[in-house]
Specification:
GO terms for molecular function: oxidoreductase activity. This is TauD/TfdA-like domain-containing protein. Keywords: Oxidoreductase. Pfam families: TauD. The structure is a single chain. Helix content is about 30%, strand content about 10%. Strand 2 and strand 3 (about 20-25) form a beta hairpin. The longest helix is centred in the N-terminal third of the chain and has 22 residues, at about 35-60. Helix 1 (about 35-60) packs across helix 2 and helix 3 packs across helix 4 (about 160-170). The chain is globular, with a radius of gyration of 20 Å. By secondary structure, it is an alpha+beta fold. The protein has helices at about 35-60, 70-80, 150-160, 160-170, 190-195, 200-209; strands at about 5-10, 15-20, 20-25, 25-30, 60-65, 95-100, 100. A three-stranded mixed β-sheet has the order 1-4-5, with helices on one face. It has a two-stranded antiparallel ribbon with strand order 2-3. The chain starts with 6 loop residues before the first strand and ends with a helix.
Length: about 210
């Protein structure tokens, strides 16, 4: 007898469609009565290749309606995918909740977080990022996502000369980090923590590497 499907296709108000692919692709439990962290982790281990294919096709997969309670259960679900862990070395002030699990940002809620690539200035960058909402806010709280591959293709179509010029000459990005870490800024991690050195003079060389 065939195993009943664990996931059911769902939808999200306000979801976008780019080149025929919805963002995000939403999955809900086919049986809400059996949708805890252990069941979800087992389904991920069983259906991992299919979920990875959805991620490659749609850019983001949203798991909505599953009973995952806290950082430890979230970590078990993440580890069920079998993907390698990367240490967090970015510039945002975050608190470690569990191994592999951090708060998203400790800056004041009224500060705007712009679109960005996670740890984009590091030599090694993560290929995947997970988000988890434990307590939904009374209002707001949306996590905005954008597909850089779609943006790049649109830029090539609309601004071909600019894209060609940037590809040929490169770009220089300047960022300012505080001397000491603070939770009052979105980019509030000190340059000492980001560069992992207390000496300001080697910093320039570390960036250029």
């Amino acid at each position: 007898m065939a195993r009943p499907p664990f996931f059911a296709r769902s939808s999200l108000p306000g979801e976008k469609v780019f080149h025929g692919a919805v963002l995000p692709y939403t999955l809900a439990p086919a049986n809400p009565g059996a949708a805890g962290a252990d069941e979800l982790a087992e389904a991920v281990r069983r259906d991992g290749p299919g979920l990875s294919s959805l991620l490659r096709t749609y850019g983001a997969v949203l798991f909505r309606g599953f009973d995952v309670a806290g950082g430890a259960e979230f970590r078990r679900v993440v580890e069920a995918f079998g993907w390698a862990e990367m240490p967090y070395l970015g510039g945002s002030p975050r608190m470690k909740v569990e191994d592999r699990v951090y708060t998203s940002n400790e800056a004041p809620l009224d500060l705007f977080i712009r679109f960005h690539h996670e740890m984009s200035l590091m030599k090694e960058i993560p290929s995947k990022v997970f988000f988890f909402c434990l307590t939904p806010p009374a209002e707001g709280g949306e996590t905005s996502l954008a597909r850089s591959d779609v943006l790049y293709q649109e830029m090539k179509r609309r601004l071909p000369e600019f894209v060609s010029r940037v590809a040929g000459t490169g770009t220089v990005v300047g960022l300012e980090y505080p001397k000491e870490s603070t939770t009052e800024l979105v980019m509030g991690t000190s340059w000492k923590s980001v560069l992992q050195t207390d000496d300001p003079w080697p910093s320039d060389g570390l960036w250029r590497e």
